[in-house]
Amino acid sequence: MHVTSVTWRPTENDAFEQGVLSWTGSEETPKFTRLFTGEKLSWTITGPRMCIGSRNEAGRLVPCPEHIVSRPRQVRCGPCAAVDSMDPCIRCTGIRCNASEERRTRCEETDYVLYLAVFNDQTLKVGVSTARRVKTRWVEQGADFATVLAEIQGGRAARRLEDLVGRRRGATKQVRSKRKIASLTEQLDYSVAEELAKRFSSSLVEVLPEHEVQLEDLSMHYNLDSLNARPLPWRKRSEPMDGMQLLGDVVGMKGSLLVTRIGSAFTVADLKQLVGYTVHPDLPVKIVTQSGLLDYI
After folding, report:
1. Which backbone phi and psi does 52 adopt, to 5 degrees?
2. Each residue's pLDDT tens digit, 21-80
3. Which of 42, 133, 146, 159 pairs as cysteine with 117 (C-beta 3.0–4.6 A)?
4. Minimal CA–CA distance to 222: which of 185, 252, 258, 177?
5. pTM for this prediction
6. Is 253 left (phi over 0), alpha (psi -120 to 50) or beta?
7. CB of 66 within 8 A of CB of 79?
8. Residue 192 and residue 187: Cα distance in Å, rounded?
9. What are phi and psi of 238, to 5 degrees?
10. Cβ-based burial of 180 (10 A; exposed 0-12, middle 13-18, buried ≥19)
11. Paired residues of 10 in beta bridges
């Protein structure tokens, strides 16, 4: 399967299912492969990294017509990047709109929210999402707690407000995977997270209407309660992806981070690193002998 993205999908009873989307043949839409807790993974990754395609005006991914090898550090080839309808929106700050007329009209008619996400290491992140999928956005990035700060109509207005609030001291607009991995075994008390969110919200009274902070606890979605030791990185970024193997029992996911276990040893992989590569679930695997700290206690 040719991996196109890591995804979380809402299900019934306010729950989510997590996994990867991939091209597996001549289908018109990527196939969803769910990653179940307890599932045994035996994945072999092969290169080169191929273009994952482009998104049309409806935001739907379509395959690369030429199946071109993507550029270094990119997941799209030049032609697909040039026609991708969502690309201008990702870098939007609300100052100038570079999207197509159809995309611009749809954006201005959509309801957005400005949100505050809180992570276990007490990092605060400001972000924007469409109102209908804001909770999905929270779990996609592995937030531990989150709340809506404001509701806004139109993407440009939402992005301008995000840029303004994101410049405030005490918050960021991006949390890197390395930081999220380092805090996987940390636990932030709800009351502490709530106080952090309230303190930051109260500093915005001149730009946002004062409102009650209703912080939502998202920890139940990640299935990492059994994580009693810090997981080791699956690979170094300097290591070639071609030929790498991802093995073990699935413990849980947090955002794009997948935690697996072999014996008592935990491993964490950022599945975003697989985007563009081909995953083979059934190839023979190397013999793995790995010990964890708990084996010696």
Report:
1. -90, -5
2. 999 987 789 999 999 999 999 999 999 999 999 999 888 999 999 999 998 889 999 999
3. 146
4. 252
5. 0.92
6. beta
7. yes
8. 11
9. -80, -15
10. buried
11. 16
Cβ atoms within 10 Å of 192's Cβ, excluding its own: 13
Cα within 13 Å of Cα(182), Cβ side = 8
Structural tokens at position 152: 């806004």
Three-class SS of the chain: CEEEEEEEEECHHHCEEEEEEEECCCCCCCEEEECCCCCEEEEEEECCCECCCEECCCCCEECCCCCCECCCCCCCCHHHHHHCCCHHHHCCCCCCCCCCHHHHHHHHCCEEEEEEEECCCCCEEEEEEEHHHHHHHHHHCCCCEEEEEEEEECHHHHHHHHHHHHCCCCCECCCCHHHHHHCCCCCCCHHHHHHHHHHHHHCCCCCCCCCCCCCEECHHHCCCCCCCCCCEECCCCCCCCCCCEEEEEEEEEECCEEEEEECCEEEEEEHHHHCCCEEECCCCCCCCCCCCHHHHC
Residues 95, 257: Cα–Cα separation, whole Å: 33
Structure-token pair, residue 260: 């697996």
For 244-280, what is each residue's pLDDT tens digit? Answer: 999 999 999 999 999 999 999 999 999 999 999 999 9
